[in-house]
Design goal:
The complex is a heterodimer of chains A (74) and B (426).
Chain A: H1 3-33, H2 43-73
Chain B: H1 2-24, H2 27-35, H3 38-51, H4 56-80, H5 84-92, H6 94-124, H7 130-145, H8 150-163, H9 167-172, H10 178-183, H11 195-208, H12 211-224, H13 231-259, H14 272-280, H15 284-317, H16 331-349, H17 355-381, H18 384-387, H19 394-419
Helix pairs in contact in B: 2-8, 2-12, 2-13, 2-15, 3-11, 3-13, 3-15, 4-11, 4-12, 4-13, 4-17, 5-6, 5-15, 6-7, 6-14, 6-15, 6-16, 6-17, 7-16, 8-15, 11-19, 12-15, 14-15, 15-16, 17-19
Classes of the chains: A mainly alpha (74), B mainly alpha (426).
């Protein structure tokens, strides 16, 4: 590998690394900024969010079942 | 004399109200008309071809439901000055925030592909190759936003909304049976509530209320700079939009119901472009109008969907994210907008890409986001410290919750029917 190739690989690697680090830092910053939900967690809100979670889990189970049936029929 | 003065005063007040309304109108009409996107037009065309005029009453009922949901977005945007994505992060924390943002981005991208499918299919009626359609659409959509003025963007998009009305003269050219249309306003199921008719009802709901609409409408209200005092005008705007969406949907059903429906079982069509191909031989003007309308619907859908994602990303990542910004002032916002368009357009051009699967998958992904977005909307609208006097009243909550429950149940059933079609087709 020539010196130019090595240099090029390093700069590309560092560019990807820098971009990745920048995005990770940004996501961390967003998570910190919104870490305390502003909505008052009344029992109604808690129940609504729990129902939403259960609903999404149900959907995931249905999707996994569909995937299983498609794969097994093949 | 007194009567004349009174009349003149009322006339002046009306003119003032109208000029204010015209200045503030836009987001509500645009979101509602864009709701009649390529997928929507296909659903209405397929419903008309399968059931004739028999389900027009149902589409009329969906108008108030869409209005109730979008009106809440208007209030939330005007009061909080935040888009829906940012409001979810702020109120519910990062877990629900990231869930909504990632789901929205994925869903919008898939929907964008389905808009390109619609646009390329529509232009194929006129012999335009898909690659030319995709390139022209991307250039057109870049030109629409690149001047950096919300007002100009909005008026240009409203022109495309006007083109959506092409279905009305096209249908009137056919001299449809107005007696039969009048009878179709009375709710009925001619062959009973069969699994097949239930499937079509769910498809119509799925296409009338979509997750991106909530995000787009709230963000556009914020970008336009509407405030609490503008809410009455924004309500009118949304109401006009919901009337518009119902009219266009009904006329598409009447058009295909007149030309393609064969009683008692109707015919199945895969997409609106297929209907245009079938019609253009015997009714060239009507077939051409159907194809132009489908292209316009896909274009409006693509404009709004790509903006909904870009606004949401901009709000959360803190990028400059206004159409009032020039490209150099909001590079990330516009880069996301253009990239999503170019990638979605390119996917459509890939030979053998699973486009039908993508179109079906959109419905499934939509139900992972729609219930969450609607529940968040109702919860946010009930926060007194956030909404003040604009929070939901008891009646608004009853109406909102009934509509949300109906939408969630039926759209979930629709997603299941897409995954397991044998359940709803005999």
């Amino acid at each position: 590998m020539s010196v130019e190739d090595n240099y090029s690989d390093q700069s590309e690697g560092s560019l990807i690394g820098r971009t990745f680090n920048r995005w990770t830092a940004k996501i961390k910053e967003i998570n910190e900024k919104y870490s305390q939900p502003r909505l008052k967690m009344t029992p109604l809100v808690k129940v609504s969010l729990l129902v939403l979670r259960l609903y999404l889990i149900l959907l995931v189970i249905i999707l996994v079942y569909k995937f299983y049936t498609v794969v097994s029929f093949r | 004399m007194q009567l004349g003065a009174n009349f003149f005063y009322k006339y002046r007040r009306f003119v003032k109200w109208l000029s204010l309304y015209l200045a503030l109108a836009g987001p509500g009409i645009i979101v509602m008309v864009a709701d009649n996107d390529a997928g929507g037009i296909t659903t209405y065309a397929a419903t008309g071809a399968k059931f004739g005029f028999n389900l027009i009453w149902f589409i009329i009922l969906l108008g108030p439901a869409a209005f109730a949901v979008q009106e809440m977005c208007v209030r939330l945007g005007a009061v909080t000055k935040r888009g829906h994505a940012e409001a979810i992060f702020d109120a519910f924390g990062p877990f629900w925030g990231w869930f909504s943002l990632i789901d929205l981005g994925f869903l919008d991208f898939l929907t964008l592909i389905s808009e390109f499918v619609g646009m390329t299919a529509a232009m194929s009626v006129f012999g335009v190759p898909p690659v030319i359609t995709v390139i022209c659409v991307c250039i057109l959509m870049l030109l629409i936003v690149m001047h950096g003025r919300y007002w100009t963007w909005e008026k240009l998009v409203l022109l495309f909304c006007g083109l959506n009305l092409i279905y009305i003269p096209a249908t009137l050219l056919l001299h449809p049976d107005f007696g039969a249309i009048e009878r179709a306003f009375v709710p009925s199921f001619p062959n009973g509530l069969t699994p097949e008719i239930f499937f079509f009802l769910m498809a119509n709901i799925g296409t009338t209320i979509a997750p991106w609409m909530l995000f787009f409408h709230q963000s556009s209200v914020v970008d336009k700079g509407l405030t609490e005092k503008d809410i009455p005008f924004a309500r009118w705007d949304t109401l006009m939009g919901s009337v518009f969406v119902v009219c266009v949907a009904a006329f598409v059903m009447i058009l295909t119901g007149t030309l393609l429906y064969k009683p008692p079982n109707g015919i199945d069509i895969g997409n609106a472009a297929q209907a245009a191909h079938a019609i253009i031989g015997s009714y060239p003007l009507v077939g051409a109008a159907l194809a132009i309308g489908l292209f316009d619907a896909g274009l409006l859908g693509a404009i709004c969907i790509s903006l909904a994602s870009s606004w949401a990303m901009g709000e959360v990542f803190g990028w400059a994210h206004s159409i009032n910004n020039k490209i150099s002032e909001a590079p990330m916002f516009y880069a996301f907008y253009i990239l999503s368009l170019v990638i979605a357009g390119t996917v459509v051009l890939i030979p053998g890409a699973p486009l039908v699967l993508i179109t079906l998958f959109v419905q499934v992904i939509a139900v992972t986001l729609l219930p969450a977005a609607l529940v968040f909307l109702i919860l946010l609208l009930n926060q007194e410290e956030l909404m003040g006097k604009y929070k939901n009243t008891f009646i608004q909550n009853v109406i909102g919750l009934s509509i949300v429950t109906m939408i969630v149940v039926l759209s979930t059933l629709y997603a299941i029917s897409v995954l397991f079609p044998e359940m709803f087709h005999q």
